[in-house]
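User: For my dataset I need records formatted as: sequence, then structure tokens, nothing else. Please produce one.
Assistant:
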Amino acid sequence: MKKYIITAIFSLFSIISISAQSKKDAQISRLYQNYIAIKSALSSDDAEKTSKAATEFIKTASAIDYKKISEGNLNTLRKDATAISEARNISSQRETFMNLSDNMIALTKEFKVSESPVYVQYCPMADGSWLSNETKIANPYYGKSMLTCGNVKSTIK
């Protein structure tokens, strides 16, 4: 009888853990989608839209449980997003986006952020990488002036 009770309790904890894991991954997936919104706004040379997308990123990052991502990592992401949100010119936003991208790339390698592949893209002119949900290049560092500059560096599945 004890064996069955212990097995039942272990099974219950496993189900709770899996459920919590899915929820936390959903939070990180939402953070990734906010990041993609920032990247898209930068690619279209829209500083105001970039600022709004960064504000949404901050809200999502603030809602993520520290047990999933360390407080230090979340603070770093929020710091970069805050600088992007507060900057009113696109060149300043792009400079900070490089740091945000490096941190998001590391996060994406650690956590599953999407059911679809995530592409790490690279611009040799800016010497910077970014994440994308498609293979088509839309360069956030140069926007419309060099929209297709870059290549897919790797794929995260």
